[in-house]
């Protein structure tokens, strides 16, 4: 397979984990933001997590510097455009980018301005390249329930205009779903697609509760359903899609190495899996690298790839017209 030329879809990519190092330096200089260094090699080291992280918490430290330069409308537009430009260069045809608006209010931007700026960046990329995109709004599990309600309410006006989904992310603790039942229920009522980070750090039961309590349609990662029989059964029987990110999972120690990743076993057992980067810069990866890893480790063939691609089309929160267009890039 010529992986670089194959059409690709990405459903799980964090904006603040996917900045170009040079862009960080450029924005910092333009906006007078103090960085620990303006040497691009130093910045690269700060914002790229090692393959041998000790935990998810260590991995998340790489997001500190990017957030400093994501506090203006211009920077958010630029960073979003560049992400889609990079994705288009490796033949990604559709991407759902996610971010937490409340992380970008430090210099006075409103949540609405933040969301619109990201949507604007996507639109510019769509005009220039053969790629389509939408936004998933992330609520931080380390913030209060009221903050989750705020994101849901303020994002509502953008539904159908670039926003398609809601997410819960950040460090994972057992039983977090119970705390966020009401805001996610409201989001579902408004028409948001629901995808929840769960089962990334050893707690398979969180996946079960994300489906049962939050009516999640997709699960970010979901690795640890392998250790929770009930969660595994629910995901398989309900056709819940897993947004899997192999490199990230090795970094955060969800798995010890690529060969032990359960993605291929899930796929062969009929679970809907998709392939994603999670964070292009923090994980030093892209969709072609992720595809290559899976192809090399598990000898997937072109028919397998097509099925994963179609899984991604069907699981996306894109509208009917976009899905039909995406299907035409590759025939099952």
From TrEMBL:
GO molecular function (one): adenosine deaminase activity
Annotated site residues (Important for catalytic activity) in this chain: 221
Enzyme Commission number: 3.5.4.4
Co-factor binding comment: Binds 1 zinc ion per subunit.
Annotated residues for binding of Zn(2+): 12, 14, 197, 278
Domain annotation Adenosine deaminase: ranges: 7-329
Catalytic reaction list: 2'-deoxyadenosine + H2O + H(+) = 2'-deoxyinosine + NH4(+); adenosine + H2O + H(+) = inosine + NH4(+)
Positions in coiled-coil regions: none
Keyword terms, alphabetized: Hydrolase, Metal-binding, Nucleotide metabolism, Zinc
GO-annotated biological processes: adenosine catabolic process; hypoxanthine salvage; inosine biosynthetic process; nucleotide metabolic process; purine ribonucleoside monophosphate biosynthetic process
Pfam families reported in the protein's UniProt record: A_deaminase
First-tier enzyme category under EC: hydrolase
Function: Catalyzes the hydrolytic deamination of adenosine and 2-deoxyadenosine.
Similarity section: Belongs to the metallo-dependent hydrolases superfamily. Adenosine and AMP deaminases family. Adenosine deaminase subfamily.
Name assigned to this protein: Adenosine deaminase
Gene coding for it: add
């Amino acid at each position: 397979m010529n992986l670089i030329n194959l059409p690709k879809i990405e459903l799980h990519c964090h904006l603040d984990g996917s900045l170009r190092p040079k862009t960080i330096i450029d924005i910092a200089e333009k906006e007078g933001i103090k960085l620990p260094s303006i040497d691009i090699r130093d910045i690269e080291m700060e914002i790229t997590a090692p393959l041998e992280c000790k935990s998810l918490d260590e991995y998340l430290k790489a997001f500190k510097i990017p957030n400093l330069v994501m506090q203006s409308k211009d920077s958010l537009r630029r960073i979003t455009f560049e992400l889609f430009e990079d994705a288009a260069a490796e033949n990604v045809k559709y991407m759902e980018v996610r971010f937490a608006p409340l992380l970008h209010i430090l210099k006075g931007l409103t949540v609405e301005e933040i969301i619109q700026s990201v949507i604007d960046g996507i639109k510019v990329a769509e005009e220039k390249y053969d790629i389509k995109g939408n936004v998933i709004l992330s609520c931080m599990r380390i913030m209060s329930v009221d903050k989750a309600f705020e994101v849901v309410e303020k994002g509502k006006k953008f539904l159908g205009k670039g926003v398609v989904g809601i997410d819960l992310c950040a460090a994972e603790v057992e039983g977090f779903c119970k705390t966020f039942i009401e805001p996610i229920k409201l989001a579902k009522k408004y028409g948001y697609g629901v995808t929840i980070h769960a089962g990334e750090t050893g707690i398979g039961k969180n996946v079960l509760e994300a489906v049962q309590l939050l009516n999640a349609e997709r699960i970010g990662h979901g690795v640890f359903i392998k250790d929770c029989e009930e969660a595994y059964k629910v995901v398989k029987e309900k056709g819940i899609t897993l947004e899997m990110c192999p490199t990230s999972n090795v970094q955060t120690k969800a798995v010890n190495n690529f060969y032990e990743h359960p993605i291929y076993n899930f796929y062969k057992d009929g679970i809907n899996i998709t392939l994603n980067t999670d964070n292009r810069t923090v994980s030093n990866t892209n969709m072609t690298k992720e595809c290559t890893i899976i192809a090399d480790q598990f000898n997937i063939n072109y028919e397998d790839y097509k099925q994963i691609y179609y899984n991604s089309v069907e699981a996306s929160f894109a509208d009917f017209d976009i899905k039909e267009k995406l299907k035409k890039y590759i025939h099952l």
